[in-house]
Each structure stands twice: as C-alpha cells, then as structure tokens.
Amino acid sequence: MSKYDILFYTTSGCHLCETALLMVNSLQEKSTSISIKLIDISSDPLLVEKYGVRIPVLRHFDLGKELGWPFDEDALAKFIKIDD
Question: Which among 9, 17, 67, 16 has a CA at the least distance from the CA of 37?
C-alpha cells in the first residue's frame, strides 16, 4: 500500500459519513495517489464498539493515526498529507 492509503470507517445511513465521503472524493480528484478503503463497521461488533459513536473515522493503514469527525477539507488534506 502507498503512504496515502486510508481506511474510512463508516456505515449506511450515516449522514456525517456521507459528508466526509464527499470531502474525500474531492481530494481524490486532486491526487490520484490516494487510495481509500471503505469499511462498514456494522458487519463487525468490535468495530461497532470501537467506532460506533465516532464515525466517520479515517485511519492511516500504515501509520495507525486516526482522524475522527468533526473535520473539514483542510484538516483532511493535512491528515493525508496532500500538498496543494
């Protein structure tokens, strides 16, 4: 995986997740090196316990760093280290 690979913890019916995904998609248009994997937490009780009240949460696959809601596009870009 590249340094921009991000795990995106989400679930269906989460309007905050939808908002965050729009920001992620916008940043992906600016940099094709970003690879995002969506993970629906509802399929795993451990993920529900860990992220249930925190989603949307983005997590660097390699670094383990997390960015939880609320965040804006600037904070998201900084988190995944995209240069303008």
Answer: 9
Answer whether 8's CB lies under 8 Å from 38's CB. Answer: yes
Residue spans per domain, the chain: 6-79
According to CATH, the topology of domain 6-79 is: Glutaredoxin (3.40.30)
Helices (H), the chain: 15-30, 45-51, 73-79
Could you report the per-residue pLDDT of 23-67, keeping only the tens digit for each? Answer: 999 888 877 677 889 999 999 999 999 999 999 999 998 888 999
**Cα distance between residue 75 and residue 46, in whole Å:** 27
Q: Is the pLDDT of residue 83 over 50?
A: no
